[in-house]
Amino acid sequence: MLRDLLEESIHFSPRLKQWIGKAVGGALVADGKIDPNEKAELAKLFKEFQHETELIHSLNSAIDRGVPPILEPIKTSPAISEKVLALILKICASDFELQLGELRYLNQVGLALSMDASKRVKLIRSTVRGVKLEFFREMLNDIYGEERYWLASVILKTIYADGKVDRREIPYLNSVFELLKENPDELAFVKADAKNPSLDKLPEVHFDPELAARILKYLLEIVMNDEEYDEREINFIHHVAQKLHFTEEDVEELTKEIEQSNVELSKLYEG
Question: Whole-angstrom Cα distance, residue 213 to residue 139?
Fold first, then answer.
């Protein structure tokens, strides 16, 4: 993707080069920080585009400001628009999360590029699915033994908390398998106990605060992935949050954050 864009950049106008540099710089600061994975992406960009002085200057200026720039509409070919948006998405998703500020910025990029709606939505949906998958894989790397059994059980109980499996919750069933695929007997027991909302028979687990926060966010996103979530689901999440040593206020704050992100995603899809 980056290589394809680089090969075509020799034909770009100075204005387009500046616009791309500004857009990429904005993507790097859209969530208020530049994390290690984004720094790695930045190093690649500097190396690949080192001879594109207009683009690099514009990129640096956007980073120096520390806040996403206002992007004026620009006309280019559909193929170039798609490659630019793909690059912006890759940068924003490089830390395996799409923060609220990044989603708002992506909306601005999509509008400025005037991309075909179906292509834009397809690209964004694919990225969002990939982000959720990588977010879980990263989390999985820090979870062992009884912690895996506990989380697999809680994920499945979260899915069944409202008495049914919504179509949008189906992809999360694979998380349960990933956690316990080496322990088929435990997997069978977790499935058999899925509709029991009690956590009393689960082992005591002690996650560090950062990992616990990631787990709570993941569980909330399962519930809020459904267009309509009911009181049983929210009550169950609050029960889990207590086990993870979070307050009701913590849950409410995280819930609002996810709600805002879902609103921004809807805007991206609707264009």
Answer: 11
Cα–Cα distance measured from residue 203 to residue 268, given in angstroms and rounded to the nearest whole number: 41
Q: By the 8 A CB rule, do 97 and 130 touch?
A: no
Question: What are 57's two structure tokens?
Answer: 């200057």
| Cα separation, 140 vs 151, whole angstroms | 10
Owner of token pair 């075909």: 116
Tens place of pLDDT for every residue, the chain, 271 residues? 556 676 676 678 889 888 988 998 999 999 888 878 788 878 887 887 888 888 888 888 888 888 889 999 999 988 889 889 998 998 898 888 888 899 989 988 988 998 888 888 888 889 988 888 899 999 999 999 999 999 999 999 999 998 888 888 888 999 999 999 999 999 999 999 999 999 998 999 999 999 999 999 999 999 887 666 778 888 999 999 999 999 999 999 999 999 998 888 888 787 6
CA–CA separation, 20 and 71 (whole Å) = 10
Radius of gyration of the chain (CA): 21
Six-digit token string for 175: 């998380």
DSSP letters for 163-230: SS--GGGHHHHHHHHHHHTT-HHHHHHHHHTTT----TTSPP----HHHHHHHHHHHHHHHHTSSS--
| Alpha helices by DSSP H, 52-192 | 53-65, 78-92, 100-113, 117-140, 146-159, 170-180, 184-192
pTM: 0.79
Output DSSP code: residue 73. P
For the chain, the straight-line distance linking the first and the last C-alpha, in angstroms and rounded, comes to: 23
